[in-house]
Write a structure and sequence with these properties.
7-stranded mixed beta sheet; alpha/beta; Collagenase (Catalytic Domain); 23% helix; globular; two-stranded antiparallel ribbon
Amino acid sequence: MGGRDRGLHRRRRRPRSGRILAVVLVGAVLAAGGYAARHADLLDRVDVRRTVQAAAPSAPAPDARPSPTAVPTPVPAAGRVAPGIGYPPRGSGAFRTADTVGAVAGRSGELLRYRVAVEDGIRNVDVERFAREVAATLADRRGWTGDGRWRLQRVGRDDRADFTVLLTTPVTRGRLCGDPSDRYTSCRNGDQVVINVARWVYGVPHVTDLDRYRQYLLNHEVGHRLGRGHERCPRAGGPAPVMVQQTLGLHGCTPNPWPIVDGEPLAGPPGQYDDPIPAGDR
């Protein structure tokens, strides 16, 4: 993949007899992705319909009383407990798109605008709240806007956007990323930053802080949209550059969600490891 890395992950090894067919199919997918990248409306391009944002839940009845145990709880350890979000393996293919326009993050550099959308069928994820989480990560001074090379702004459903962050079900992830066999990872494909809800919910076992893993996930896939390829661990015991495929392994580095560490951009040697992609979505 190297410098031409599009944010897609390695396919699982297939029997030799199927390789010719796989090459033909992948070529068709990549050709379609090249065509798609030339069109401005991402949600139309990925063959999903825009939907009106779901109405807010109704207020509780006047006599409803809060549960005595309804207090904030710590973020669960990644890979162990799901934080209340539900999803089917395959969503509807339609997306709810956040409407709020955010401030420009970053002091200088090229401005890219992005939308945020959540696939129908994913339960207990408010699209506006998810969009705020995305915006908070992308606006952090330790992120891509921190060194003056990029500015990022969240825009609404009908605004022009340079890319869209999509929270998708595992099967839709495979379709949008051009690899139906992979229901585990996330990807970037053209102007689509595809976040697999399975990873958003369960994280990965070797990164025990789910908040930090989610920050990594967004920064890694958006990093591909900004032209960054995969990297390798530069020093055992040190923080992993954000472009290491931390979802699949750390290779001696420690988890790190940010492009900038201790005030300086952190990068590793270009390349990636031949880590297997787990079957299923967990």
